[in-house]
Amino acid sequence: MRAKITYFLTAAVLVVYFVLVGSRGLMLIRHGTWLTVTMGVSVLILPVIGIWFLWANTRFVTKANQLAAELEAEGALPADELERDQYGRILRDSADEVFARRKVETQDAPGDWRSWFRLAVAYRDARDTPRARKAMQRAIALHDGKPVRV
């Protein structure tokens, strides 16, 4: 729940920022000289990129949460079998061991979105966020029946 609140607060701050920057860009364009119009258009590009980025990430998180809810309904969410230190942090050796099992599972069933979802969780537990994101994107694509690039 805390992550959702943080996400929505950050998104709201970004939207306010996009509105402020966008209004400054429009003011520059309205001024009418070639320099201010050029700068105004340049300033408007930032909110457009930011809105696209925010939308893409929101869509990704929503889809990943839908997959998690579906796995939970099936009773197939990966169990937390990781060892932790005294501060609650995941021990690297434990994460690597679970990751190795998830990788074999995914290699045995490369077309199963469930195994890719579990692999994404294992990547995240092993602190490999870029690969976790790619594995989750593949799980989403397989779930939605979209073509997957190898």
Helix content: over 70%
Beta strand %: under 5%
Silhouette: elongated
Quaternary structure classification: single chain
- As residue ranges, the low-confidence spans are none
Terminal CA distance = 35 Å
Overall mean confidence score, pLDDT: 91
| Total helical segments | 5
Order of helices and strands: HHHHH
Radius of gyration: 21 Å
Class by alpha and beta content: mainly alpha
Largest sheet: none
Count of individual beta strands:
0
Q: How does this model look, in words?
A:
This protein is an all-alpha fold. The chain is built from five helices and no strands. Helix 1 runs antiparallel to helix 2, helix 3 packs antiparallel against helix 4 and helix 4 packs antiparallel against helix 5. The radius of gyration is 21 Å and the shape is elongated. It starts with a helix and ends in a 6-residue tail after the last helix. The relative contact order is 0.08.
